[in-house]
Predict the 3D structure of the following.
Amino acid sequence: MSFWIRRLASIALAVGGCFLIDWFAKENLKDFIVRLVVLAALYITLAVSLNLINGITGQFSIGHAAFYQVGAYAAGLATVTFYKSQPLGLALWIPLMMLVGGVTASVAGLVVGLPSLRLRGDYLAIVTLGFGEIIRIVTQNLKVVGAASGMAVEPKMSTPMIWLAWLLAITSIAVCRNLLQTAHGLGFLAVREDEIASSAMGVNVTRTKVAAFVLGSAFAGMAGGFLAHYEGFLIPTMFTMDVSFIILTMVVLGGSGSVTGSVIAAILLSTLPEFLRDIQQISMAGLVAAAISIIAGVVAVRYVSQHVHTPSTRRIAYPGAIIGSIILTVVLSKVLAFIPTLANASTDGSRIRLVIFAVTLVVLMLVRPQGLLGHREFGWGSLRRSEA
Amino acid sequence: MAVDHLFAAGVNFGSLPAQVVNGILIGSLYALIALGYTMVYGVLRLINFAHGEVYMLGAYTALFVSWLIYGNQVAPVHTFWWALPTMLLASMTVSALVGVILERFAYRPLRNEPRIASLITAIGLSLLLQFGGQLFLPVAPPPNINAKVNPYSDSMTFYLKPPAKPLADKASSLEAEATATEKAYNEALSGVPSGEEPGPTVTALRNNYFEARNAYEEAKGAAANSGVSVTIPKGQLIMFVVTMFLMAILRHLVMFTKQGRAMRAVSHDFDSASLMGINVNSTVTFTFILGSALAGAGAMMSATFISGVKIDTFYGLLPGVKAFVAAVLGGIGNIPGAVLGGLLMGVAESLVIWVGWGDYKDAVAFLILIGVLMFRPGGLLGSAKVEKV
């Protein structure tokens, strides 16, 4: 009995938490921040669902934006076509449309998952990338969904339904986390570690891989369904390769296989670079200084990891290298400001957004390929253990 | 609608040879880039996503060198014999340098990590060069080099089947009429003092001239359609010849030199090659030099000889992707396969345009890719390896 009490209580807590976020955001935060709160939830869903495919099942998909797009367009098209001729209110209709988006995207996931049976690693990556591009090019030419000029989704939600986005995010987290506690979930991990060995142990590799693709793309499609009604307008350029790479960066940064890591990385990477949009002028001197000190920092950290083996020295050396490179950035930017060509040149913040993602990917691979958290998860159990 | 066009109007078979030739010409460019992908994959088992960006930097180098030589002038014809080779060499050098730097500082440290790590790094580098390059390189530089330094912008027309005689005669007589009316109209127009509205006689002459010209254009089109001709821009022909020349050099390097033999050995078995005393690092560097220099050459030639594409930091994205597909189509890791794949890819693309599905031209590459990977994962000339436990 206590099992069910705990379960129901945690569900109530999750739903209550979503409405709390909703209430708090609408009461206290500016529109710009509210938008970030919604986007953070969508990116959490996307990152966690890609993590299910990439991190937990060990496939390598880099076309996640395609599923996002399929879900968004399916939901948008359904709303435009059917909303007027049915009795449901918007608050019920939108979750229904998210389901429609999810189902459509999971069919797409099935289509992509099938070649994954024969391909692995880099080949699969290319196929998913290609699939994403095909979807984008087809929508760009399809008159039904507005082709390249986009499609208006009427009616869109009147106020942002923040609770719905967060409920979706929490659901995706819960599904992934709980899946890993079951025998099926262990099958996913087994496929990641060694396909041949796991099939010898009786894991149905085919079904596991396809299930990962279907489940992952379903959540991405639901996020897309939400996005369609949140933005009220869909255009193919919203779902370019860059979006796929942003989601991939989140998964890689958090640590492939760690749900907690994906969530943290999604929150960080979806909010922090957005603040850059407001900055009109970033001095070139600062940028060059940052580039030089990032390189210096990477070299220093790699040197420490290869040549310093005493644990106590390491404990000082790693933060030392990182702090050193931060100090180097500040000092260098002041020094480089004396060079007139660099001091006078500047660029606006929105242009370095994607540069940050690219730098994150490369630096992470060179310095800490397993990501921030590796395979570790946050859980109440680990807290309890640390207390004891 | 594209489909209506296909079935209602019928496909114009007269233009098929022209499209195939066009496809082969553009395909030679894809083949040149695909060689870089396939050689790096053969040696390192790494898809070098940043190869397209190496190509992009080669195009920028050609652009900058052309600015250096000519400033903002239109290039005088008699300087081409040294200016174009200079641009070519500069592009090849800079691209090779970029390739070596990428290998040395990004791929080599990760060689012992899982392959996915290198792949993610390659994606990251590609994004970094695209978006980071935007901060430093001029995006959409005002004078495109093509307009200035393409000495061979005109084209040659070969007739496989000459146009029908009566139609051609009609066209030439209409041409004479169009020239005559144009002359009459221009004379009348020069008689009108500036600032005044031309009178009704001048307007009538102008209408005559327009009518005659339209009739001539129509007859010319009909005459051209009745024959089968192939039109080749001279610049692209030069591109094709240079490409074939470079491929011959590559073949010599790979098959008959010591470094080339080392390359083949490393691609056959990385670990055994290093045990046999082959300097694996220098061989990998050599591979990157070759592949990137070929990409640089392709970039210079496409920037100079193919009009209508502006140079920005995404210049290498689509050619890179298509060349990659070409490499997979031919069998990745297989050098003749890359050339075959590139040519087929070019032909496939121009056939899609010929059928009238030009909007989907970029999707075709991926469809071919998915088809190849599903049904013949080893590519046309490669062989799929059976994985052993």
The mean pLDDT of chain B is 83. Chain B has two domains: 11-154+232-375, 163-226.
